[in-house]
Amino acid sequence: MRIQQSICYPLFKPGDMSLADLFRAAAGIGYAAVELWGRGDDFEEVVALAHGHGLVVASMVGHTSLADGLNKRSNHDRIEAELTTSIEIAARCHIPGVICFSGNRQPWQSEEDAIEATAAGLRRVTAHAERLGVNLNLELLNSKVDHPGYQCDHTAWGAAVCERVNSPRAKLLFDIYHMQIMEGDLIRTITQNIRWIGHFHTAGNPGRKDMDDYQELNYAGICRAIAGTGYPLYVGHELAPKGDPVEALRQTFAICDQE
Asked: Is residue 233 within 8 Å of 8, Cβ to Cβ?
């Protein structure tokens, strides 16, 4: 199955280019989707613009507070309300997944209790997600460079949460850049855990920039391995281009256009 690629559009939009022209360019290159981070006043207008250019909106943030997340039971009422609304918006806009966050480690909490707390928070909304067909994608982030203290920083930790939730809609957002920093061994880890993965993010490491010869990841090989699993959803590019953003879109697409 050929990789379906998406872009986190705020990173790629040149200042002198309209959003419509960016979406037109991305669709012309071959991208299948774009991704939105927040839910500003123009959210559904941007969704409609993407759809008008034949692009799916692949992902959106499901709740606030990356660092203050699901591992704290005191947050569950707030996050349940936020996720309930996000699931409904995602279903209405045909967005397959919403992003969730574990939060940062708490000095008083064991890893085991944090896993169970995160799973308990997700279980509050899984029935709603199942009814509406929306994935809850718990994001894997590095705690070494970009997000000190973040708890869901290894694939095994996130997979343990998904196992506890025990829902077909409880998934992981596997950020390849972040997991290269934390654990490496990416192709083996991805293929062994593909059943848990509902979305991917990419970027070159180090630097979170282009997939060029100044970074260490072989994205052609990684995307070929993802395609070989039959993964049906999206691989989203969350890199900051060094040069012309549209040219970076072309180069990134060519590298990752695997089957």
From this structure: no
